[in-house]
Amino acid sequence: MRPLFVACLTAAAVLAQTPAAKKKSFLDKPTLEAYVRHLFVWSPQIAVAVSDPKPSGIDQMLEVSVTGSMGGASQVAQFYVSKDGQKVLQGVSFDVSENPFHANNTKLKTGLGPALGKAGAPVVVTIFSDFQCPYCKEEGKMLRANLIQTFSKEVRAYFHDFPLDQIHNWARAASIAGRCVHRADSEKFWDFHDWVFDKQTEMKLEDFRTKFEAFLNDKKLPAPAILKCYDGKATEPDVNKSFELGRTLEVNSTPTVFVNGRKLAGNLSWPQLKQIIDFEIEYQKTAKNAGEDCGCELTVPSPLPKN
Hints:
By secondary structure, this protein is an alpha+beta fold. It is about 40% helix and about 20% strand. It has two domains: about 30-90; about 100-285, Glutaredoxin (3-Layer(aba) Sandwich), CATH 3.40.30.10. It is built from ten helices and ten strands. Strands 1, 2, 3, 4 and 5 form a five-stranded antiparallel sheet that branches.
């Protein structure tokens, strides 16, 4: 019996020295990537990037973003991982003290881009569009025919370029041209906007400049100066900035519209959009936490009268 006892002790000693299998954790990037690929059926052709964990504002949870991309398309999924790495939640967290679209509104800096409607309006509509996109053409016509005519005081609309270069060969050229027109005469940008969409099916990259010059002459705009801007791609940085803004807001397709930060991807009918705007107008009467006149500016209290 003694040899068997010794053998058992020897085996126990070997097992004690064998390292335990590593416990899986969602905080391990390859583990989370594999899990998400299975969850979303993302093939190997889709590139996946997992962000570093960061504080989420939720007790005992860390925030991790997972981005899947292929070609020009991308999708971002937000996850909340327990600090022990054993549980994961997918979704969006909200702060009871803030507008549910606060994060989008913080990013939606309107700048000095093309705009329509009353400055300081309680509702801001932001459009990300591609001039070569047929769905954008329909959306653009719908917005131009109804938006400001219906909400002359309640809505401010901003246009952002989002040319899909991978599938549209002259969309970027049109965006650069439109921004050059806007620099020369901001109101005439909307004439350009309507003209490009009207001529969309006729337009080709090789004859775009010729047609653009004819448009400038027809509208009695300073063609030599604007064409110099276009030929030198002087406004391409503006287009790139607009495109990158869309990326930070997870715009993946055109048209995409934001109403006070609420993201609405794809084509909308006018009744659908009007219903959302009507709701937001009524909501902002008391909330005052969005729009250009959100009532959320922070100032240092002072007994001195304002100038």
